[in-house]
Input
Amino acid sequence: MLEDNSEFEAMERERKLTIIRQHQLNSKEQGDLNTLKAAFAGMDAELKMELMRNGKFMGILQKEQTQSPADMMWLLDVVMRRFVKLAKRLHSFNELSPGGKLSLLKAAMMDLLTLRG
Output
């Protein structure tokens, strides 16, 4: 019975992957994807430059060095600044009121830090 269940799960996974592979983006979805790609463009280069200015943090990111509380605060600062820069590059975010932007960033920051941690 266990083998039947695992075979069923494998077949179901394959079916879902086939559906995903066959999905074609419509023009709105493609436009949204292009907007996100443009927002992310250059973000990695900015992070690498920031890390090069503080060379010791490369070892921390690669988990080769221990992390002090000050190191963690610096990394959190970099991640939060990067997230805000990304948000500012999104047209929909810029249409929000200043209070709406702040509320959205506050609400999303904990989720972001949880995911990135």
About this structure: The CA atoms of residues 61 and 84 lie 21 Å apart. The chain has a mean pLDDT of 77. The longest helix spans residues 2-22.
